[in-house]
Amino acid sequence: MAANPESESPSASDRLMEEVCERENLKQALKRVQANKGAPGVDGMTVQALRLHLREHWPSIRSSLLDGTYQPQPVRRVEIPKPDGGVRKLGIPTVIS
Fold it and tell me: How far apart are CA 47 and CA 40, in angstroms?
């Protein structure tokens, strides 16, 4: 049996983005970034500066996410050493658009 090639209904994807943008979800995400000692992306914004930036700019960021006009910016690529001697590539997103 093949998967249905039709995309999700707009209402389902709209609700998903609303869930992504919910305050509690964002608070948990910010805590994870802080716990991981997140590094700045190509915009240079630190985790400490992120909180203040979001307080001021969150309404416009949220609006662009929900109305589909948000355009992701380039990510900073870093290599993280693995215990076995290899590396894994990690993308650090940009906050400021």
Answer: 7
Identify the domain containing residue 54 by its residue range: 41-97
How many CA atoms lie within 13 Å of 1's alpha carbon, on the beta-carbon side?
A: 1
In a domain, 14, yes or no: no
Burial-class residue 30 by CB neighbours within 10 Å (0-12, 13-18, 19+).
middle
- Among positive and negative, which fits the CA dihedral 13, 74, 77, 31? negative
DSSP letters spanning 39-66: PP-TT---HHHHHHHHHHHHHHHHHHHH
Model-level pTM?
Answer: 0.65
The two tokens of residue 53 are: 């930036």
Radius of gyration in angstroms for the set of CA atoms belonging to the chain, rounded to a whole number: 17
Provide the domain count of the chain: 1
Tell me, yes or no, whether 65 lies in a domain: yes
For residue 5, being part of any structural domain is answered with no
Q: Write down the pLDDT at residue 82.
A: 93
Calculate mean pLDDT across residues 12-28.
86
